[in-house]
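User: My advisor, Dr. K., asked me to get a structural model of this assembly before our group meeting. I'm new to this, so sorry if the format is off. These are the inputs:
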Amino acid sequence: MQPFRKLALGSLLLALGAASAAANADALRDQANGIFKPIPEKPSDTLNPDQVTLGRQLFFEPRLSASHVISCNTCHNIGTGGADNVPTSSGHEWQKGARNSPTVFNAVFNVAQFWDGRAKDLEEQAKGPVQNPVEMHNTPKNVELTLQSMPEYVAAFGKAFPKDPQPVSFDNMARAIQAFESTLITPDSRFDLYLKGDDKAMNEQEKKGLQTFMSAGCIACHNGVNLGGQAYFPFGLVKKPDDKILPSGDKGRFEVTKTENDEYVFRAAPLRNVALTAPYFHSGQVWNLDEAVKIMGNAQLGKQLNDEEVGDIVAFLKTVTGKQPTVEYPLLPPSTATTPKPVD
Amino acid sequence: MQPFRKLALGSLLLALGAASAAANADALRDQANGIFKPIPEKPSDTLNPDQVTLGRQLFFEPRLSASHVISCNTCHNIGTGGADNVPTSSGHEWQKGARNSPTVFNAVFNVAQFWDGRAKDLEEQAKGPVQNPVEMHNTPKNVELTLQSMPEYVAAFGKAFPKDPQPVSFDNMARAIQAFESTLITPDSRFDLYLKGDDKAMNEQEKKGLQTFMSAGCIACHNGVNLGGQAYFPFGLVKKPDDKILPSGDKGRFEVTKTENDEYVFRAAPLRNVALTAPYFHSGQVWNLDEAVKIMGNAQLGKQLNDEEVGDIVAFLKTVTGKQPTVEYPLLPPSTATTPKPVD
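Assistant: The format is fine. Below is the predicted structure of the whole assembly, which you can bring to the meeting.
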């Protein structure tokens, strides 16, 4: 064999090897693209900009709460992953919420809102905490009186809902908040860049973690654009976690449907930005992502994931942190003589 | 007299009249400029931009509180005039603060901080609420452990305080917050534009209100760049307001100096943006600016201001609302395994 041919053969073998590795890499990406979807680069262009602007004010508006202290941002803090990073939130008079506050980021892509999916969309969701006695402790009537008392809000609602004969309403408050929250998306995570073809966006361990995340069965619940948030599953499908993590008093979706099958059923947690949103689970009792992954392997899949598998999956999960939204703090109108006063 | 001369005389008289009105207008402005000063157009250029950036994060950082719920912005809300617009703030476990939360806007121009001036500057002030058991309920040690647990904060402190061998410290936290808060100024109020020569920036009633504000004696305490905030005076100098407005249990600056002369002495409230910062007084018991002006006339000057005078003064006070600061909500670093957990 002549040197030229030897070289050519060597090159061919190298090329074949590279092609095979590339094929494997493409296979992993193809598989992933069949299961997940990147976050869109930009919010939906069907959003009404005037509603978004008004919604931004309302999201930061503490006067939606009876105390004038608590706003949406209190528990869905846009500086800390869209959540408040405590087990359960402190609401009116420091009462504790029943479940961990879910992130508002990318929530627009969930099939329904709240841990039990009891609100069909962000509009319906927004009305919940405002009225919840342990959260903002307010009433629709008082919210409307509050917003109607400020000429700047009257003008902003009129602009955002020009066809509505009564633009300043509790319903429109929720619609505007939904519009703003629909802009709170986190595109361009390293995982998304990888899905779109950038091989270098994830390292080998992270890709191995992705592989394990798929092959171990996590994707049965955690799939789609939000790696979850699309459907309901019993927590403790195979083995119930202990009472601290899955308190027996909270029967999840059963409270909504009153159907026995829905006992301890929850919406699969969306995992976007999960590295930013500890503590974990509806009970908010687990601070460590490694531990959360282990618990899920055990509870949902009946698998004792080993340390390497857990480490790989966590490495992968850290690649789904996207570009956090930038938001200018809104200027809120001053109260007037007719604005209802805060209550203690 | 020929028509030409007649015309000339008429013009002369008119011109004299205008000159006299202009002289009066200039006299009012000259007098005002001797007493007040406009807010600077821009924050001091001696501020360190890295400290400002870090301070912005810390100002919105709920993990400076033991509960991980309360940040500086909770009580000094930059969307609502730099204050929280409730009588007294709700702190840790919903405990009530002793006095109304003063605005952070233009606070850099006050002679000292807090209603009793017990902190000499914003740096010293920033350390107070963090440690106050009824406010953020934290300790310097725990704050340092918290900040040191996050690599992004370690890097940001290192950048902001490059010469400090131990950059992540409680003291430097306060310095960075001071730097950020020093940018929270509100220039270009209509009153400031008037002071600088724009006659049209204030209408006749507002100018009349300015005249009354000066001639009635309000300026004895409310002068300088912040229309107050420069010195200490007894509340109820002539006649004590009732116990609701001036609760006998709060002896003001006496608590600081233990000097009998300082009983019920407070720092004169700075009146910048006063239309945005109801309720009024250290007790936060008066919601209406008209009523506040009446009470002050009576308590401090022994004067029963009539409705016209009150209306004029309030019209003037509404011209001291400046351009509110625009602030991008900061991205805060995620907690780590070593970050101290929130306490209930």
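One thing worth pointing out at the meeting: The mean pLDDT of chain A is 94.

User: Perfect, thanks a lot.
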